[in-house]
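Example record used in the benchmark description.
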Amino acid sequence: MGKIKVGVIGAGSISEMHLNAYDNNKEVELAAVCDLNEERAKQKEAKYGAKRIYTDYKELLSDPGIDAVSICTWNNSHAPISITALEAGKHVLCEKPLCKTVEEALKVEEAVHKSGKILQVGYVRRLGTNMKVLKNFIDEGDLGDIYFAKATCLRRLGNPGGWFSDVDRSGGGPLIDIGVHVIDACWYLMGKPKVKSISGNTYVKLGNRSNVEHLSFYKASDYDESNTVEDMANAVIRFENGASLLLDVSFTLHAKEDELSIRVYGDKGGAELEPKLMLVSEKYDTILNIEPQIDHLTFDFENGFQNEIDHFIDSCQGRISTISPVEDGLEMMKILCGIYESNKKGKEIHF
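Model output (structure tokens):
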């Protein structure tokens, strides 16, 4: 195949990572950028040399010259845009989460199978350097049977506002926005076991906290002080193979500091992926902490996105199978929605 002609749908902040990575890939031609805000689409067109701009994604997808798309829009539009793109014969890279509900995920999966096209879910941490190194150790059996994992992503102040805090557009708060990354990292390292049951809690206690002064945080381009999503969530996730995952995640919490931690434990060793890669082993009756000598012990953000885009293009070219297929997106929606459902019903959810 020649160059892959790509369209990027949604020109918000995350699209910059996609556009920059596509720009660096010699097998890509940026065919189009689409955004409801025409001026924002024009800015990306000027910066990255896109051939065309659109304000209606359906018009972009009707272009037979476009081979693949990145979907960088609000969560509530991920499923309909993905399905329309697949039906139009396009390969799809969809930002996480895949969608808002399990029902939507099943429809997207069906569209993938009918189309024969690739859908890659944006689990970018799978393609970080530290993840690649640790996954190799796990695949070679150094950690043994992984039976327990802990995923933490706590912000003391960090509700982005705008669409992120509007449940109708986002589908939820920190759980579905940042929690999905740490859950997926653990689940991927554990070998992607099937979920058996979930006991989850969500809390709405602090809200937007716009009153806080002298501490900056990321704000969405459409930031306002309204909020209809949870402040924080926690859960115990049990898998069919007997393993379990403990989760806590927040947009806002009375915590001393922000915390990011991804840890897995096996019967031969353990490991921390974040805040920096560290393996724990035992040799000659002595416990060892092993720090790999690599450039990036923590997630290398820009390189991770470049790896993700390069991986997607390699998949479109037929050289490899995608590392994050639609089936993984469906299983993750079962987990995310299971936590929300468990909280709503006040009991453990069984699958």
